[in-house]
Write a structure and sequence with these properties.
Oligomer: heterodimer
Strand content of chain A: under 5%
Number of helices of chain B: 9
Shape of chain B: globular
Helix content of chain B: 25-40%
Structural class of chain A: mainly alpha
Number of domains of chain B: 1
Distance between the termini of chain A: 59 Å
Mean pLDDT of chain B: 90
Radius of gyration of chain B: 18 Å
Shape of chain A: flat
Order of helices and strands of chain A: HHHHHHHHHH
Low-confidence stretches of chain A: none
Helix content of chain A: over 70%
Distance between the termini of chain B: 37 Å
CATH architecture of chain B: 3-Layer(aba) Sandwich
Order of helices and strands of chain B: EEEHEEEHHHHEHEHEEHH
Number of helices of chain A: 10
Number of strands of chain B: 10
Number of domains of chain A: 1
Low-confidence stretches of chain B: none
Largest interface: A-B, 23 and 28 residues
Largest sheet of chain B: 6 strands, mixed
Structural class of chain B: alpha/beta
CATH class of chain A: Mainly Alpha
Strand order of the largest sheet of chain B: 6-7-8-3-9-10
């Protein structure tokens, strides 16, 4: 059985798995970017009350492998709390939490290192604080953090396959099931690799272009 | 009366006294140059006068409106009537030269009222070819001209410049001297902080010599030819 035949035969299962992967990815991206940005801003503005505790938490949590945290959230944590959460939501919550911490660690230093001279120059030019925020601070910071955020989101999407290990029926778990049924690991996993290439390549390319453009056009003092 | 008068300005940073009871008056049509060695407090003085980093004590009176420091409650912002070009120039890196000049609303309003204003300012500073470039694509001298153009188009009454010759070659310094003289003739009060004696002697109407946070000498350019104060004598002999 060739790769195309396998894809045709198992297309419904693969599409469903792809749907779960994309759904997980969207949740992790949206929650991680939203919460991470808020955390990053808070950490930059309230150094001692928020910034330092968050940095310690990030340092500790991001030192633990993702898969260990996911298993910990799926088994010990739920036993301790006496609850049973759908593995899909456990995966979404764990990866969103990690993504938010990582996003915050990109946003915080960008805000803290923002050159005060840009703001002072805006002030003496008669600009209001909101004009300075929207016209100077945000555009510069967004451009600065964009490549790192895009690369991070690619990693976050790839990390959704860990959900397979706690029985989330995402694309990797579906692929494993097809391999078990067809004994064609080369074709199935190659097709999976190509699929992830299509999903992640545009984001990686965008990050690469953004880095190149920023090197040319945005040299922050 | 039209003038900016700073009296008894004191400022300390990180527990160190930088300015000690300094008085300065800026008058329309005159270029006041503040000289002094590194660490004398020149840039701090400029930041105080521009209200970006207000003084700890003293007062600044602009055209009769006096602001006491430390200010009780909010104080009226004098920008961009008083504007400044800081030593770092701080061109906004995400914007082209034209966007840098036009980002402040006041600049847009001026150009809307008089579309030739932008063209005139750009022509004055020779920036026609640079309008679509980003700051990172400019030389040090070009960046200074853009920063000056961005400040001048706001039609300030008081223009404060911190070490404007820092990244300039001799020709550019000569051009800058001419620009500043033209601005003073148009009625603007110009305040320049520098440690370049040659530039100061060519551009200044009044010289202030700051040392260890105090203005210890003031007078015309002749002061530099015949310094009486030992600190100024040393400064003149070294620079």
């Amino acid at each position: 059985m060739g790769a195309l035949e396998i894809l045709r035969l198992y297309r419904h299962g693969l599409l469903a798995g792809l749907g779960v992967t994309l759904e997980l990815g969207l949740i992790v991206w949206t929650a991680g970017l939203t919460a991470g940005t808020a955390l990053g801003v808070l950490a930059a503005r309230f150094q001692s009350a928020f910034g330092i505790p968050m940095r310690i938490l990030s340092f500790l949590v991001l030192s633990v492998p993702v898969i260990v945290l996911l298993f910990w959230a799926h088994y010990p944590l739920q036993i301790m709390l006496g609850i049973a959460v759908d593995p899909f939501y456990t995966t979404a919550a764990t990866l969103s939490f990690l993504n938010a911490l990582a996003v915050a660690e990109i946003i915080r230093p960008a805000i803290q290192a923002f050159p005060a001279g840009y703001i002072a120059t805006g002030r003496v030019a008669g600009m209001s604080e909101s004009e300075i925020l929207w016209g100077i601070q945000l555009p510069v910071i967004v451009r600065q953090v964009l490549p790192a955020l895009l690369s991070l989101q690619v990693i976050a999407l790839q990390a959704t396959i860990f959900g397979a290990l706690i029985s989330v029926d995402e694309i990797f778990r579906v692929s494993q099931q097809i391999v078990a049924a067809t004994y064609r690991p080369v074709q199935v996993y190659t097709a999976l690799a190509v699929l992830f290439l299509f999903l992640c390549l545009p984001l990686n390319l965008l990050a690469l272009l953004a880095r190149h453009w920023l090197r040319e056009h945005l040299s922050v003092e | 009366m039209t003038m900016l008068k700073a009296q008894g300005i004191r400022k300390s940073l990180n527990g160190r006294q930088i300015l000690e009871s300094t008085d300065i008056t800026l008058r329309p049509g005159r270029i006041t140059v503040m000289l002094g060695p590194n660490g004398a407090g020149k840039s701090t003085m400029l930041k105080c006068l521009s209200f970006v980093d207000p003084p700890d004590a003293g007062s600044i009176t602009i055209d009769g409106v006096r602001t006491e420091f430390p200010a009780r409650g909010s104080w009226s912002r004098p920008w961009p009537r008083v504007t400044a070009v800081f030593q770092g120039l701080h061109l906004w890196p995400h914007l082209t030269v034209e966007q840098n000049i036009l980002l402040p609303q006041r600049a847009r309003q001026i150009v809307e009222r008089c579309p030739a204003a932008l063209e005139a300012a750009v022509h004055q500073f020779g920036l026609e070819e640079l309008l679509n470039r980003f700051p990172s694509q400019l030389s040090g001298g070009q960046r200074l001209l853009v920063a000056l153009c961005r400040a001048v188009i706001l039609q300030p009454e008081y223009l404060l410049l911190d070490e404007p010759t820092a990244s300039l070659d001799i020709q550019s310094i000569h051009r800058l001297t001419e620009y500043l003289r033209a601005l003073a003739i148009s009625g603007m009060a110009v305040f320049v902080v520098t440690h370049m004696l040659g530039f100061a002697s060519k551009v200044a109407d009044e010289i202030l010599f700051l040392d260890a946070g105090r203005v210890i000498e003031r007078g015309s350019v002749d002061l530099l030819a015949h310094p009486s104060n030992p600190s100024l004598q040393t400064f003149v002999s070294l620079y």
